Amino acid sequence: MKILIADDDPQMLRALRITLGARGYDVVTAADGRAALDAAIESHPDVVVLDLGMPGLTGIEVIEAIRGWSQVPVLVVSGRSESWDKVEALDAGADDYVTKPFSADELLARIRALSRRTPAPADEPTVSFGDVTVDLSSHVVTRDGASVRLTPTEWRILEVLLRHRDKLVTRETLLTEVWGPQYTTDTGYLRLYLSQLRKKLEPEPSAPRYLLTEAGMGYRFTTA
Amino acid sequence: MKILIADDDPQMLRALRITLGARGYDVVTAADGRAALDAAIESHPDVVVLDLGMPGLTGIEVIEAIRGWSQVPVLVVSGRSESWDKVEALDAGADDYVTKPFSADELLARIRALSRRTPAPADEPTVSFGDVTVDLSSHVVTRDGASVRLTPTEWRILEVLLRHRDKLVTRETLLTEVWGPQYTTDTGYLRLYLSQLRKKLEPEPSAPRYLLTEAGMGYRFTTA
DNA sequence: CGGTGACCGTTCGGATTTCGTTAGGACGAG
DNA sequence: CTCGTCCTAACGAAATCCGAACGGTCACCG
Questions:
Q1: pLDDT tens digits, residue range A22-56?
Q2: N or C: which terminus of chain A carries fewer CB neighbours within 10 A?
Q3: Which of A130-144, B90-104, B133-147, B172-186 has the lowest mean pLDDT?
Q4: Average of per-residue pLDDT across A171-186
């Protein structure tokens, strides 16, 4: 069970890491909103404990961003106890709201209650990288929450690359898988579709982070 | 959305009934533990708001009894704010714990958060989008209150699309599900029926909002 | 150091496929 | 016969595919 803790107070972070770690939880930490988002994407936590008063992004923005691609339970921790703050956070997508100071026992019990509610997703047919998520089963691609439209050929190429994630896919493999066994040499259109995929999925299409080219060999998809 | 409120304080009961009723919730009440259990069985609420300090059964016993047969979200309301009380209630199966006094807004937000988490019942007999309602079990479609008449083929197509909501349904799947396994390629009638369905269900048939087409791949029903 | 060629990314535009829609005929039930 | 449903045919519109060409980068070599 992995938990992401986002708080700007180093002391709080340390205390929670120790408390939760002692209960056998796998703890990941972040000290500001941006880092929290990145960590949520990278490490796929089972529960997120989020402090609202962080520098950078507001807590609300972090919640909404997470909700854009994930259903992970979010437990908000905040010094503010006004009911309006609670309503805003909960309606943004948070699942629980605890005001400081709180007891470690209560936090743990609430975490248990939350994780009880989310029966481990059977299998994960969805791949996430950057602000993009790809759902292989329902053929849905979203970026920043908005859905991205792919043509059939683009989809087939992405599918092949994702299936061989982190591995090199030769040009020939790609051609035969997408266009059929008789196609074996690229006459130029493979480069074309890779270009379009990067334009639609990469944060900076000119400096690909996920859809990489291996000169002379082929292509490789990686999340690292 | 039906809510069961169990509290021994008549004033609190009345206040909650009014508050929740004003938000469009269907409210059922009970004044002691036994009555709460009975009501939970009888009326199948979508959310239970449970006061711990009731005569008769203890709140914990009520929670455990409910959990014996139901996964309905339980929100505990209590005057006791000791962390031990919270832990006990949450570990017994409660999903949230609010201490009195609390604001109505917060309670409502927490109820919304809980019901958001409630897994959609496996077979959802009715689907609504725009001003259209489709009752899968009784094969009735209404639009703006008036009933819409669908031909058998139109109905079968709509049913398949609704069953795979938000997912892409390939042309081939649609054909085999509606016309039989031997039909595998579209000779034109699929487009025809989609056109007719849109004419009957879409607010603007020329700019579909729910019955979307994915060029080269198939169709998709979505409410978003 | 400049030239050269291989390789890759990108743009453009026309060919091709796919889609939406209308019109009308075939077929069976009442 | 009449009506409702299913299906074929046809055509304009839209989306997609893909060939061709241009520019950039990099390794290699004279």
A1: 887 889 999 888 888 888 888 889 899 999 888 77
A2: C
A3: B172-186
A4: 89
B166 contacts on A by Cβ (under 8 Å) = 138, 140
Angle A152-163/A189-201 helices, nearest 10 degrees? 80
Taking each helix axis from N to C end, the angle separating B83-92 and B59-69, rounded to the nearest 10 degrees, works out to 20
* Contact status, residue A46 vs residue A72, Cβ threshold 8 Å: yes
Is B117 within 8 Å of chain A by CB?
A: yes
Chain A residues with beta carbon closer than 8 angstroms to that of B105: 83-84, 86-87
Q: What residues of chain A lie within 8 A of the CB of B103, using their CB?
A: 83
CB B94 within 8 A of CB B76: yes
pLDDT in tens, B56-91: 777 888 888 887 667 789 999 998 888 889 999 998
| Domains, in order of start, for chain A | 2-117 (3.40.50.2300), 126-221 (1.10.10.10)
Cross-chain residue pair A87–B96, CB shorter than 8 Å: no
User: What angle separates helix B152-163 from helix B171-179, to the nearest 10 degrees?
Assistant: 130
DSSP A222: -
Q: Taking the CB of residue A63, how many other CB atoms lie within 10 A of it?
A: 26
Does the CB of B216 sit below 7 A from strand D? yes
Cβ of A87 and B95 within 8 Å? no
Strand ranges in chain B using DSSP code E only, listed in sequence order: 2-6, 26-30, 47-51, 74-78, 96-99, 126-129, 132-135, 140-143, 146-148, 168-170, 211-214, 218-221
> Which residues in range 185-204 of chain B are in contact with strand C, contact meaning CB within 7 A of any of its atoms?
186, 188, 191-192, 194-195, 198-199
Q: Closest Cα partner for A178 from A135, A218, A141, A209?
A: A218
A102 beta carbon to strand D: under 7 Å = no
